[in-house]
Amino acid sequence: MARKEPAADAANPGRLKQIALTYKMTRRADKKIGLVLAAVGIVTFGVFLAIGFLIGHPIYLGILGLLLAFLASAIVFGRRAERAAFGQMEGQPGAAAAVLDNVGRGWTTTPAVAMNRNQDVVHRAVGKAGIVLVAEGNPNRVKSLLAAEKKKMNRIVADVPVHDLVVGTGEGQVDLKKLRTTMLKLPRVLTGPQVTATNDRLRALGDLMSNMPLPKGPMPKGMKLPKGGPKAR
Length: 233
What we know:
Elements: H1 4-29, H2 33-55, H3 58-89, H4 95-100, E1 108-115, E2 121-127, E3 130-136, H5 142-156, E4 162-167, H6 179-184, H7 192-210
Parallel strand pairs: 3-4
Antiparallel strand pairs: 1-2, 2-3
Helix pairs in contact: 1-3, 2-3
Keywords: Membrane, Transmembrane, Transmembrane helix
Organism: Streptomyces purpurascens
Region (Disordered): 210-233
């Protein structure tokens, strides 16, 4: 026990420093973050304290209100910090993949399942809503990438719904900040075992393509790779 205490004491300053850095980063993009957190905390505490006076238990409700005020402020801070981080990533290559990695439990993300020479890319996420293909890049060019990947998914897992989203600010596109919310709103149609089975089938296909033997030496003149062959990642 004595050995664990110094480690715990050393970890606490690290956590506090990380929170402070996150707050500073968030404040650069969200100037009102301090006022919002203070308002959430004060209002939450004030409501519970007022209820405590009304029912004759101000101390009990005051303590409860203080704890809930801290919790509410932490939740609001986390969401606004996440939104600020996504705002700073917007427009950068791979930003959608970073969002997909933070969608939540139950989702398996595979970045860059399809890409072209212009660095337009399609990412894949699998969850209880089915398969979600998320494209980022030029909206006109990613259509062909999405169509090809969606066709492949329908051929491999025909019994699983496939959704496609394009990240952007144009009409019919999903803003990067709203990507996570949009995915979580999709109807859940698969059970846990079905999600696992879908991931296994897609993983087996990926392993099969990556382990496919290729002939050594220079490619014969006029020979072309078959469609659906391994893609550069």
